[in-house]
Write a structure and sequence with these properties.
alpha+beta; single chain; 21 helices; Arc Repressor Mutant, subunit A; two-stranded antiparallel sheet
Length: 437
């Protein structure tokens, strides 16, 4: 790690995290957060790691850390959620955690011992509420967010339900998974320690699916493994509580599902408090109120977790007290929470006029999100120590930042061919297991 000697290691670590899948702009509050979570030796290691997943042999070569010391540090970093370890066919791969989904969630999901949750909560809150994080990830109208809203069952008209795709059904996501885990909701945990949590939703709701993801969170003590039946009970409880279901923004092999309340969820607060409607990718459905059935009770507006249902005056006596509901279609994420307590059945979700883009796999989501956020070059040339990779990152990064290039690669005409080319390149590099997930 000679290239880091004599440099500000926390500034280097900040650049590494900012170059991952979620932009993480530098500030004094980020420095304070990183200094709290990473001792200097761990900061040096993570700053020197490749951007993507690597086996232990490659990490030893790239970082220059002796294997015994490297293993010891990784054994400490992974249970703290600062490095992700994935076991694929009995071989472990390691990668630095991004800020989300990663450092924030895994830190606040930790349990056991006398951990300084109050201090962590204040540090995360200070950094996120500055707003630069939301601006960097959503301020340019990015289409590919980490999360997508999943409709609650029963909130779509029966004649339209046949058009709901399997990946849009929460129960189907669970049914297709082979392993399950439930952990503490990081957002509610944060707000509980800040002293401003207003909901009474249980802390333990955060759902993980799949062999690799469940293996990581269970192995590192970040969640407990549960049965499919318990996971379905967790889903039913969230429906009863009127929580928003936000799942991994992929069509196949979703790795997590968040059960979100409007008061605590930092992603929903990205919409309500910071004004970025694209912080969550909408479902392919949108709420609409049947005026003839509506009784003007106002419940749908009060229940909407993102304040997308306003009220307007209407001469009809039914609406004299609360007004008539009007949905802001630029905000509605199609979660269906407004339908759950609508006794007359006036509020229902209908198919959006234009289908929403949801990447097929995690590989596609990472590629497209990195392209939008200007970090794709780091995924393709991920060795921070090689001059050839540094040169390639600089050249390719400058090219991909050109708006016409980015628009072309994200377009319907080129996106599939672009992704196919990167898939074949990843397979040639021996990363085929990651392409299929």
């Amino acid at each position: 790690m000679g290239h880091l000697v004599g440099k500000d290691v926390y500034r280097q670590l900040g650049r590494k995290i900012d170059g991952l899948t979620a932009r993480t702009p530098w500030s004094a509050s980020l420095r304070a957060l990183l200094q709290e979570l990473y001792p200097p030796a761990d900061a040096r290691l993570v700053a020197a790691m490749p951007y993507g997943f690597s086996k232990l042999d490659r990490l030893e070569h790239v970082t220059g850390i002796p294997r015994v010391q490297l293993e010891r540090q990784l054994e400490s970093l992974c249970p703290r959620g600062l490095v992700i370890d994935i076991c694929v066919r009995d071989e472990y791969y390691y990668a630095p955690s991004p800020m989300v989904i990663g450092i924030f969630e895994f830190t606040m999901m930790r349990t056991g011992g006398n951990l300084p949750y109050d201090r962590w909560a204040k540090l995360f809150h200070t950094y996120l509420e500055e707003g630069a994080f939301y601006q960097a990830n959503f301020g340019d109208g990015q289409q590919v967010s980490l999360m997508r809203a999943v409709p609650h069952d029963g909130s779509i008209l029966p004649e339209e339900y046949v058009e709901v795709l399997d990946y849009e059904k929460a129960a189907e996501i669970i049914d297709r998974a082979e392993r399950f885990a439930i952990g503490i909701c990081s957002c509610r945990h944060e707000h509980e320690h800040l002293g401003n949590r207003t909901c009474k939703v249980p802390l333990e709701t955060c759902s993980s699916f799949g062999t690799n993801n469940v293996g990581f969170v269970v192995r590192n003590g970040l969640a407990r493994e549960v049965s499919k039946a318990e996971m379905l009970d967790n889903l039913a409880r969230s429906r009863e509580l009127g929580l928003v279901l936000n799942a991994d923004n992929v069509q196949r092999h979703a790795s997590y599902m968040c059960h979100c309340c409007g008061c605590c969820c930092n992603v929903l607060r990205g919409i309500t408090c910071h004004g970025y409607a694209n912080a969550v990718v909408t479902s392919n459905w949108i709420a609409r109120s049947d005026r003839d059935k509506c009784i003007g009770c106002g419940i749908c507006s009060r229940r909407c977790p993102i304040q997308a249902i306003g009220r307007v005056p209407d001469p009809d006596p039914r609406f004299r007290k609360f007004g008539r509901p009007v949905i802001d279609e630029s905000l509605c994420i199609g979660c269906g929470v407004c339908t759950l307590r609508c006794k007359p059945g006036a509020m229902r979700r209908h198919k959006r006029r234009q289908r929403v883009l949801h990447p097929e796999t995690t590989f596609e989501r990472v590629i497209l999100a990195s392209l939008e956020r200007g970090t794709l070059q780091n995924q393709l040339f991920d060795d921070p120590a090689r001059m050839t990779h540094a040169f390639a990152r600089a050249c390719l990064g400058a090219f991909l930042r050109l708006p016409p290039v980015k628009r072309a690669l994200m377009s319907d005409a080129l996106r599939s061919r672009f992704l196919d080319a990167l898939k074949h390149a990843a397979i040639r590099r021996g990363m085929g297991s990651f392409v299929r997930t």
